[in-house]
Amino acid sequence: MAFTLSVNGDNHLIDAEEDTPLLYVLRDELGLNGAKYGCGVGQCGTCTVLSNGAPLRSCIVPAASLVGQQLTTLEGLVRRPEGTLSRLQRAFLTEQAGQCAYCIPGMIMTAEALLREKATPSEAEVRTALDANLCRCGSHNRIVRAVMRAAAEKPE
Ligand code: FES
Ligand code: FES
């Protein structure tokens, strides 16, 4: 079936099966590889994107069900046309928050949703927000530090 998706501010005409998960459309049709495939069953959070500003596990939601939503991926946080990284992306690099970094896109997108809702969260709130995002490398403390660093910066 054909439908239109709004991703990172651009409209895209998609031709996909009714039940094709958003993650596959993003990666295979649109070439947006920020969101990663981890578990494929909504458990790890590495595929997280935003739908109208709320975190969404893109591996389990059919793309066709998201018509009319404003979708944002990791790539969409980069300011256009300058190519400037967002404060979260910069903070993750500064804190060297990733080890293998596979979980990092999902961490950043989940943190982005938190900071949009609450500009200056406490460390406990950051930990709670990221609790369901898995990091097999055990980088959680550095990840939390990165989010706190970003939150301390002026909102963009
Ligand atoms: S790949 Fe989507 S939650 Fe794990
Ligand atoms: S840094 Fe490797 S899974 Fe998180």
Automatic annotation (TrEMBL):
<dbReference type="InterPro" id="IPR001041">
    <property type="entry name" value="2Fe-2S_ferredoxin-type"/>
</dbReference>
<keyword id="KW-0408">Iron</keyword>
<keyword id="KW-0001">2Fe-2S</keyword>
<dbReference type="InterPro" id="IPR006058">
    <property type="entry name" value="2Fe2S_fd_BS"/>
</dbReference>
<dbReference type="InterPro" id="IPR036010">
    <property type="entry name" value="2Fe-2S_ferredoxin-like_sf"/>
</dbReference>
<feature type="domain" description="2Fe-2S ferredoxin-type">
    <location>
        <begin position="1"/>
        <end position="77"/>
    </location>
</feature>
<dbReference type="InterPro" id="IPR002888">
    <property type="entry name" value="2Fe-2S-bd"/>
</dbReference>
<dbReference type="InterPro" id="IPR012675">
    <property type="entry name" value="Beta-grasp_dom_sf"/>
</dbReference>
<keyword id="KW-0411">Iron-sulfur</keyword>
<keyword id="KW-0479">Metal-binding</keyword>
<dbReference type="InterPro" id="IPR036884">
    <property type="entry name" value="2Fe-2S-bd_dom_sf"/>
</dbReference>
<keyword id="KW-0560">Oxidoreductase</keyword>
<dbReference type="InterPro" id="IPR051452">
    <property type="entry name" value="Diverse_Oxidoreductases"/>
</dbReference>
<dbReference type="Pfam" id="PF00111">
    <property type="entry name" value="Fer2"/>
</dbReference>
<protein>
    <submittedName>
        <fullName>(2Fe-2S)-binding protein</fullName>
    </submittedName>
</protein>
<dbReference type="Pfam" id="PF01799">
    <property type="entry name" value="Fer2_2"/>
</dbReference>
